[in-house]
Every structure is written in C-alpha cells, then in structure tokens.
Amino acid sequence: MLQQTAEHEMITEKLKEIVGQEWVSDQPEEILIYSYDMTENPPHAPDYVVMPKTVEELQQIVRLANEFKVPIVPFITGANVGGLTIPLKGGIILDLKRMNQILRLDESDMYVIVEPGVTFGHIKKFLDNTKFRYCYPNAPPFASVMANALLGGLNNLSLKYGAMSEIINGIEAVLPTGELIRIGSCACWSDHWWGRGPMPDLLGLFVNWQGMTGIVTKMGLQVWPRKPIQDWKAIMSNDFAATYRFAKKLANCEIMNDILLLSEETVKMVLGVPLGQAVWTEGEPRWALVLDFDANTPKEYEAKWEIIRDVFKEEIKKVDPKAVITSVDAIEKVYGSKLGDFKRLPFTIGGMLEYGGNTWVGTYMTSNPEMVAKGVEKAFEVIEKHNFEKCLYTRMMKGGHYWAFRFLLRFSKENPEEVERMQNLTKELFESLFEMGAMPYKTPVWASDYIIERCDPTWVDLMHKIKNTLDPNGIFNPGRWGNE
Amino acid sequence: MSDALSKYREELYSCTRCGTCKYFYQNYSDSCPAGKKFQFETFYPSGRLHIARGLLEGKLEWSERIRDILFSCPTCASCTVNCKSRHHNLIVDIIEALRAESVSQGFEPLPNQKAFAESIEQAHNPYKEQHDHRLDWKQGIEDEVPQKEKANILYFVGCTSSYRQKDLAQATVKLLNKLGVDYTVSEEEWCCGSPLIRTGQLDLVKDLVEHNLELIKRMGATTVITSCAGCYRTLKMDYPNYAQKLEGVEILHITEFLEKKIKEGKLKFKKLEVKVTYHDPCHLGRHAGVYDAPRAIIQAIPGVNLIEMARNREKAWCCGAGGGVKAGFKDWAVEISNERIEEAEKTGCDILLSACPFCKTNLQDAISATNSSIRLMDLVNFLIDLI
Predict the structure, then answer these.
(1) Which of A471, B69, B128, B155 is most open to solvent, judged by the fewest CB atoms within 10 Å of its CB?
(2) What are residue A84's DSSP bridge partners?
(3) Contacting residues of A for B332, CB less than 8 Å apart
C-alpha cells in the first residue's frame, strides 16, 4: 500500500482531474470496505477507489497508472466469491458501476451489447420487454453480467451452452498500456457483434484472466428467443448413482435447459434453515433435482415431459421406489415460495447470505459417473471432517460434456476461528477435488498458486509471456496466477 | 462504541454485501436513493453496516465524512424490504443508532439538521416558529376547530401541518366534522420528535414523548389520529421505546380512520371522473405497513381511476425528504423527488395523491423545479369536496 506521500496526493489529484472529484476516494471508509469481500480470503487495502463513466476516462486512468506503476483492479459488485477484487498489491480499485448501459439489442442476430456495470437484474428487466431472454446464475440480481461471462460462470442455460464465457460474441477492452482494442466481428465492423469468427480468436486473452490482461468496456452477448411454454419439475431421490445417471442420460437427450442437482442440505439452506443446522437426517430425501425445460407448442411440451418421465422410471424409480417426480409449483405449495424462486431468476438465496461469510469451492470437471461419485464421496468426507454443511450444488454442462461441481459454503465472519476453519476446509476440499481432475473457476489466488505448481510448466511459461507482453509494467490485477 | 450500537453486533456481521438491497427485489430497479446518487459501496445500506463493523472493530474512526455518509440516507427503508438476510428489518434502526452514536461522538448533524433541534428545544417545533402560533392554521375556520379539555379522539396535527401545510390541518378538521366525529385538537401539542430521532439527536426526545403522552392521558383520548406519516410512525413505533406503552390508546393515520368509516358505511363519496396515482410515504408504507387504507379510500370514490406508478407499495421510490435529507441535502432531496414526479407523470394521471405533508412539501418542490404540470394533493384535501 502506498503511504500518504506527495506522490499519493498527486495521483489522487490527477485521478480527480480525470473523473471528477466526487468519483475518487482515498478515504478510510472506502479503503476499508473495498479491501475485503464475503469470502474467507484475507483482505488487502487499495490506495484509491475510482469510478469512471467513460471509456476515455478509463484509458486516461490506465495511462496514469502506467506512468506511476500503480496496480489496477476492476470491480463491479464484488460478489464473485473468489476474492478476485481484493487488491493483492494495493493500488486503484476501478469501480465500474457507473458504466451501466445496455447499448443495443440486435433482434436479428440475437445479441445485446452491454457495459461492465450492467447487472443480471438490469438485463432481466430490459429483456422482459422484448421477446428474448438471457441466462442467469443463482446469484443475487446485483451481480455483473460481464464479470460472470469473463469468469466463465455457470447459469440456467449452461446445459445447452456451457459456461457463460462461451456465449460472448465479442468485446471492446482497454489494454494495460491504454490502447482500446476489439475482438470478434466488431473488430471489422463496429456495429456487427454477431460472433467471434472466423478469424484468430483472441478472446482467450481475456476470459478467466481475472482482469490481468485488459479491462473490458463493452461486450456482445448472445440472447435467445423466449419460448411460449416453460416448466420446472423436481425430483426427490435417495440414490446418488441413480440420480446422476438420470441427469447424464437426460442431458444427452438434448431437450432440457437445465438439470440442477442439489443435496438435501442445500435445499434446507434455500428454505432458510439456520447456519449449522442444514443437515440431512435419515428418512429425508437425500438428493433433489430441478429440471428446467421449455417448448414451442403443447405437443412438444408433452413429448419432452414424456421423455423425462421415462428416463426417471428407467434410471431412478427402478432402484429407488420412494423417489418422486413432481412440479416445482407443487413443491412451492408445500414448502413455500423460496424453492419456487428457482423459476424466478435472478433471485437471492437468502439462507446462503445471512451470516456474513459465503464462499465456495466451485469446479468444472469430467462428467464421468465414477469420477463424479468418487468426488462427491470424498468432498463430503472432507466437509464432515471440518464440521461444515454439505451444501452441494451441481449442474450438468453443455449437453453433458462436463459437470459443474460446487459447494455453497456459508460461515460466520464474526468469529476469526471460524474464518480460519473455512480457509482450511476450502483448501483441503479444493486439493482433494483437483487430484480428481476438477478445475476451479473464479479461481482464488491460493488455488491458482496451487495449480501453477502442478500443471505443465510450458503452459505457465506461455501465460506469463502473454501477460508480460500485454502488461509490461505488471499493473493489471497483479499477484494472480503467479504474475507479480 | 455505545451499547446502543453494540446490541446490533450480530446483525452487523450477518451482511455479506451481496447487493440485494440495491434493487427492489425482483423488480430490478434502483431502490436506494443514496446508493444511486453516490454509488460508492459505502453509501449503500450494506456499506453503512460495514462502516459500523469497521467502527466496532476499531478499523475506522469517527469522522465528518462518516457522519456525512450516514446522514445522506433518507431512511426510506427500501433496504428493509429488499434485503433477504435475517437483519433486514433492523437496517434503518441500525442507521439511526449510528447517527445517534455519531452525535454522541461529537460529530453533530449537518447545520440545518442541528438547527431544527435547537428550534424544537426553544419552541417545540423544527420550523423556528413560535409555539403560541401553533394553532394559527385555524384562521378563518376558528368555529370549526374543537379545543376541548377531554375527548376520546385527539387529532395530533403535527408541526408540518401546523406551520407549513396548513390546508391539510384545515381539511382534516373539516373532514372529521363532516363525519360527526367527537374529537379535539390541542395547542399544547409539541413536536412528536421524529426529526430528532431520525437524525440521532436524542437528548430532547424523552421530554417530547413524555409531554405528548401526558397530554393524551390528560385528555382521556383512546384514539390519536395523525395526518402526517412521520408523526404516525413516531407515535406508533418510536414512542414505545421511550416510555411505557399507552394501554388502550390506538394510534391511527387518518387514512386508516377513514377506511374504517367506509367499512362501517359512514363515509361515502360523490362521483368524480379523474385519473389519480398514489405515492406511498415511506413512514406510512414501508415503516408501518399501511398500503391498503389509502388505496381503499381512493377506490371507494366513484369514477376515480387509480393508476399505480411502476414502483408502488413496498417498492415505492422515496420522495427524498425523510431522515433529515430535506434539511441536510436540500438540492439532492429535490433531485430524488424529481424521479418520483417523472414516474407519476408516466401514469398519465391528472392528480398525484399522497398522505404526508412532508412528502407533499418535497414533491411540490420537485414539481416547481421541473416545471411539471402534474397536480399534487394530499389525499385528505382531495376528499374534502367529495363528501
């Protein structure tokens, strides 16, 4: 962290000249609040918090940061659950909330162009007045659309389209040296954001780089027509192997939007069961599935519903006679609206976010049933050892090509010992899963350090070469993925 | 850190800063006026709670800036309905406790907010008016205003209607008279204390509470009616924190009282073909949960077409006057109100109705600032010619 030196004062003044006095702070309140997030990751203070409104302002800030070699960390809502906006080396937190315009919807090519500050709530409200829809994670509505896409988050259409990064059509970004670049069709025609190819696809220089290579100022994202019929079904079962086989087989049928597999503990957390009490007890269903599908006509709907029931009978009911399949509407009537909120994305899982601390070990991994079963068994063993709740939250991805294997871990931040216990759990859990081929997304710095020590050194070397080429002064989110 | 704030320790640690308080839930439009304006995380409800945590942990020290952040909140309570965490109901209480702590730490409210405390101390009202002019509003209708020593019902006029929105006091009296209600007003009424409680200036509050409760007792009133949403919230929800509950005394907003009369078949309205919209005062709606009564009254008027604004009831956008913001941040208070006027205009209504003289003051300022042609009326004033 920079001391209150003459240089600090000068940089503060220059930042104020760029964005206006009211949009720069180096005051203790902002320095503290932007130094940590809801996770167990240790805090680190920024030196300045700056809120630009325009791309030009942003470029000027980047040039200034280069001149004085001040780190820059982009921030939108800080809800990434990976500690990714904690400024590991201090410097400027670039809060991009003011850049919050949905610039255009292209109805023909079906995409929207958004600025960084656009949230899921924002895009939902916007698209509800059109015939299109977007995809949503189970994140609070005030999470950033662009950040989730850049970090490869999962969502309620991931079964169809994969991680959110896979639906990016193109970007405009400010490089660490201040140049403004475009990637995708928009690089050739400024008004055409219909796709990324066919041309060398440079999007990979920015996706999952956690702001180390550029600050994206515009993004084209695919949207899809909203179908007239949409429905949600729920399954309660007791046999994991059968439940997973069902999910995999149904995914392969390519008729579903989403197959969400939850442990009973997760269901209880969603229902608002207090911290520490979301535990499965004998006699309760062990697993829950939420199935999301849609149709253009009643005939198509009936055909899909028939396939779902057939696969259910074949894969689950045969081995687990007590398993039931029903509508989410029926579940909502019995258990209240909280479970029904899965139909009303984006929504906030209140029970997950009321103890000050919330984190995850979120990974993508093989969808091989044996590996998955082993993964669940091992993960539960580790969580039980550390005495936390086994809130499993998983999704079949991209037609069943891979699996999102994730735990939602709530904890109290009031008690430092509990924070330390959570740090120990997330590390052990991650390491166990990594050994089974699970790769964390929105990777916290301690996890990326672990990966770097174990992966192919030529990959690490290439990554560092790219980073050093794009960011010769090492100012963009330094300290992550082994980049100092 | 005072005990007043320490008692919220558990709640301060329950906020993850997930951002849910920033939107009207599943409406996805901005809900926090201060957050929308200043945008740093610190100015949102969650940021304020985390400032409190910083103070509690000794990571922050009290300062004028922290004071300004805390006092920029109009305490509209939209965060209390949007937050999905277990502390949601207490967010405004925590902010008010923080303000009180700020004052006790020597970081006093903004000059205009401090001025109304001085005025209340000297003259029992925040407007620097003389107390013996409190009933000046009855000028021209003296014969219609009952002043009795004993009555079952006390009409608690409030400072804003007594000194600034006198037509509301007059209309309320005329309405009660038309209904044949046995009630009284009192020149001994003092400020309810709302401006002080909202701005953390608590030294005088106990005296005000005791005085007003003594007045109610002495009159033998079993019902207190207010036409001010701020007075209503204070008498109903704050007074029990300062004194023993007044057993057998019911606090009613005029809209609740009138709704009862409609249900009893004692209040009927003439027909009027007009389109209206209704602004929910924060102190009546989100603070006290009174959404239906004013709507029931409006819908009981033959010919009146109530068109709701896009954000209504618990999702209503604040007028911007509350929590000391009108006094402390004059221009910004009107800026908040401008947005509400714009929203009202979009309904295509002829008249914007509300049920709070303080909201009316600020909404009227916004109408003037924006040269809007919309007509603004308190619901009581609207009703007076329809009976």
Answers:
(1) B128
(2) none
(3) none
Instruction: Provide, as residue numbers in chain A, all residues whose Cβ is less than 8 Å from the Cβ of B86.
Output: 354
Place of tokens 């509209």: B76
Query: Strand A229-237 to strand A324-327: parallel, antiparallel, or no bridges (unpaired)?
Result: antiparallel
Q: Are residues A300 and A353 in the same domain?
A: yes
B243 shares a domain with B136 = yes
- Compare all CA atoms of chain A with the CA of B69 and give the residue at the minimum distance: A29
Domains of chain A: total: 3
Pair B173, B299 in one domain: no
**Of the residues B228, B260, B292, the one at which a domain ends:** B260
Using alpha carbons, select from A454, A448, A457 the residue that is nearest to residue A484: A448
B112 near B327, Cβ under 8 Å? yes
Range of the domain at A120: 102-225
Domain assignment of residue A472, yes or no: no
Give the length of chain A.
Answer: 484
Q: Sign of dihedral through CA atoms A146, A150, A156, A159?
A: positive
> pLDDT per position in chain B (387 positions), as tens?
566 778 999 999 999 999 999 999 888 999 999 999 999 999 999 999 999 999 999 999 999 999 999 999 999 999 999 999 999 999 999 999 999 999 999 999 999 999 999 999 999 999 999 999 999 999 999 999 999 999 999 999 999 999 999 999 999 999 999 999 999 999 999 999 999 999 999 999 999 999 999 999 999 999 999 999 999 999 999 999 988 767 789 999 999 999 999 999 999 999 999 999 999 999 999 999 999 999 999 999 999 999 999 999 999 999 999 999 999 999 999 999 999 999 999 999 999 999 999 999 999 999 999 999 999 999 999 999 999
- Say whether both B120 and B238 belong to one domain: yes
- Which CATH number goes with the domain that contains A200? 3.30.465.10
A255 neighbors A304 (Cβ within 8 angstroms): yes
Chain A residue numbers touching B13 (CB-CB < 8 A): 355-356, 412-414
> Any idea of the CA torsion for A130, B81, B339, A55, to the nearest 10 degrees?
-60
Contact A144, A119 (CB under 8 A): yes
Q: CB-based contact (8 Å) between B47 and chain A?
A: yes
- The answer to whether B16 contacts A353, with C-beta atoms less than 8 Å apart, is yes
**Would residue A271 count as lying in a domain?**
yes
Q: Pick from B13, B16, B41: which is nearest to A33 by CB?
A: B41
Instruction: Give the total number of structural domains in chain B.
Output: 3
Answer yes or no: do A270 and A367 share one domain.
Answer: yes
Interface size between A and B, measured as CB pairs under 8 A: 109
Phi and psi (nearest 5°) for A199?
A: -160, 160
Phi and psi for A61 in degrees, rounded to 5?
A: -65, -45
Which helix or strand (DSSP H or E) is residue B198 part of?
Answer: helix B194-198
- Please tell me whether residues B8 and B70 are part of one structural domain: yes
Optimal mutation site among B6, B21, B28, B55, interface A, most CBs of chain A within 10 A:
B28
Cα A349 to the center of its chain, rounded Å: 15
